[in-house]
Structure formats: structure tokens, C-alpha cells
Design a protein that fits this description.
There is one protein chain. It is built from 3 helices and 5 strands, in the order E-H-E-E-E-H-E-H. It is globular.
């Protein structure tokens, strides 16, 4: 995306069209959150009332609005995401498993494996 190194995005409820949009614009998609991954949140149009962020599906760190990605593609340039941060997810107190993974990572790994 507008540089030599593509952005890598994580969004737990990513649709096929979200993935195609990201790939079409030079980005990559990850099913795990690493230090270089940007966590995105996109409210679903079908939801009624205030949007609740499912924080248990994300890792500690900033949660960025999907609108940032849309604006960046529309403007055809990199935009700092700081103005698009919806919230910063804090690390849980004692929230790591014996494998050194967060509870949400373990839930995702279990979901992906089967």
C-alpha cells in the first residue's frame, strides 16, 4: 500500500470482499496479530443501535477504524492512523496462558484449528 512494504491487517470478522479490497490495494491479511499487524474494526451495516467492539477478539494495542483504510485508498497516499484509533486495548491482568499466548489468541487458534 503506497510503499515498498505492504501493510498487514487483522480483523476477526473479515469478509471475502474485505480481503479482496485489501489485496487489490497492495495490503496483506493475517489471521494472527504480530507486532507489525494493524488491527482493524469495521462496524457491520446490518447491526442496529450502537456498535459494540468485540474486544475479546483483538490483541492489546490500538484498534483502527476501517475508514482509515478507505480514506487512504481514496487519497492514494499513506495517512497516519493516529486520528482513526477507536480505542487502545489494554493487556489483561495475568491474561496470558501457560503457552505465553493471550486468552483471545488461544480462542482464535482453537477456532482456526477446528
Amino acid at each position: 500500500m503506497f510503499g515498498l512494504v505492504p501493510f498487514v491487517f487483522y480483523m476477526p470478522d473479515m469478509t471475502k470482499s474485505d480481503i479482496e479490497f485489501i489485496h487489490a490495494n497492495g495490503g496483506e491479511v493475517s489471521h494472527l496479530v504480530e507486532c507489525f499487524t494493524i488491527q482493524l474494526f469495521k462496524p457491520h451495516e446490518a447491526r442496529e443501535g450502537p456498535t459494540q467492539v468485540p474486544t475479546e477478539l483483538y490483541q492489546p494495542g490500538p484498534l483502527v477504524s476501517f475508514q482509515w483504510l478507505l480514506d487512504m485508498v481514496q487519497q492514494r497516499e499513506r495517512i497516519p492512523f493516529e486520528g482513526y484509533i477507536l480505542m487502545k486495548i489494554e493487556a489483561p491482568q495475568g491474561g496470558l496462558t501457560k503457552e505465553g499466548k493471550s486468552v483471545s489468541q488461544m480462542k482464535l487458534l482453537k477456532k482456526l484449528s477446528g
